[in-house]
Amino acid sequence: MTIKENVKNPDTWLRGLFIVIFGAILYFVFILVWLLVVFQFVSKLLTGDLNRPLADFSVGLLRYISQILSYITFQSDERPFPFNPWPEKVKTEPAPRPRSRRRTTRPPARAKKEGS
User: Fold this and answer.
1) How far is CA 4 from CA 9, 12, 47, in A?
2) pLDDT confidence of 102, banded at 50, 70, 90?
3) Residue 67 burial (C-beta neighbours within 10 Å; 0-12, 13-18, 19+)
4) Which end of the chain has less Cβ packing within 10 Å, N or C?
């Protein structure tokens, strides 16, 4: 395709329009993320625990941000919400906890020398 044909391509202009729209949405989503951060911090400070529904919403919000960034950087042709369903929380198994190593008070046994 020539440059002239590329400039006249309506799909390119439509993509450009959606890039601007999703860029504006991303700006407001970042403000929402900071509000969630502050609220969760205050919740942790006052109650000692996180607000579980907001924590679950945050997971979906992070996936939504990832979808927007993938779309506007041309890594994906799939338009994010509201053109597709809201990203669901992926159920994952919690990471196993590392085992604590107990220290012994005895030094390790020395190997016997041969011939003694």
Assistant:
1) 9, 12, 62
2) low
3) buried
4) C
Amino acid identity of residue 44, one-letter, is K
**H-assigned helices in 10-84:** 10-47, 52-72
Structure tokens at 62: 């992070």
d(CA 73, CA 19): 9
DSSP 3-state assignment of 13? helix
Q: Check pLDDT > 80 for residue 1.
A: no
Q: What pTM value is reported for the model?
A: 0.69
Tokens of 43: 């919740």
Question: Cβ atoms within 10 A of the Cβ of 33, count?
Answer: 14
What's the CA gap between 17 and 20, in Å, rounded?
A: 5
Residues in CB range of 23: below 8 A, 6 or more apart:
72
Query: Which residues 6+ apart lie within 8 Å of 75 measured at CB?
Result: 69
